[in-house]
Amino acid sequence: MPLSPPPAFTAQELAHHVRIAGDRVVKTVIIELDGKMAMLVMPATWRIRWDRLSKILDTDFVDLADEQAFQDRFPPDCEVGAMPPFGNLFGMSVYCAEALTEQPELAFAAGSHSESIHMNTRDFLSLVQPMVINQGFTRPGARKPAWLVRNPPRRSGNREETAATSMAGY
């Protein structure tokens, strides 16, 4: 069902305008994957972890695509930054965050910054048939793994112990 909220230039703005949790709003990102354009769809509140995405997609090169490189793949009236998540219709592989598949309904830009579509998730998956992946993303506010958290050096009277502790966290 198409909706016309105020213009939204990010997926999180769309979530705010249509009053839906950001986990149900699709962020569409065009990536370059070993020299080919592909589409990555994920919750609006999430960010890409490029190192993990490269690993899960088993590629040496993955990067954000240049807008000028993919603009011609979409209809002329499709606004950059408002591409609907139907990469399969535009000759692109589509990679979908597993978390989106767990939502009952999704909302996404309908090719413009002022229109959105709400769609049953099962219908989206059936139409697009994306490759579902469960890594390559991070949620804001998610706890960092223990090995990534730096422990501040302990203060003690012994300078050698303090220096050794500081070096351990390099």
How would you sum up this structure, described in words?
The chain is α+β, with helices and mostly antiparallel strands and 170 residues long. It has a single domain, classed as YbaK protein, CATH 3.90.960.10. Helices cover 24% and strands 28% of the residues. The chain contains 6 helices and 10 strands. It has helices spanning 11-18, 50-56, 67-70, 98-101, 121-128, 159-168; strands spanning 2-3, 26-33, 36-43, 47-48, 62-64, 93-97, 105-112, 115-120, 131-133, 137-138. The chain has a 5-stranded mixed β-sheet.
Features:
170 residues; disordered C terminus
Short description:
The chain is of the alpha+beta class and 170 residues long.
User: How is the main sheet built?
Assistant: 5 strands, mixed
* Radius of gyration, whole Å: 20 Å
What is the number of E strands? 10
What's the CATH H-level homologous superfamily?
YbaK/aminoacyl-tRNA synthetase-associated domain
CATH topology assignment: YbaK protein
Structural class label: alpha+beta
Q: What is the count of structural domains?
A: 1
- Provide mean pLDDT, rounded: 79
Q: Roughly what fraction of the amino acids lie in strands?
A: 25-35%
Q: Give the H and E element order.
A: EHEEEHEHEHEEHEEH
Helix content: 10-25%
> So how many helices?
6
CATH class: Alpha Beta
Instruction: Please state how the strands of the largest beta sheet are arranged side by side.
Output: 5-2-3-6-9
CATH architecture classification name: Alpha-Beta Complex
User: What shape does the CA trace take?
Assistant: globular
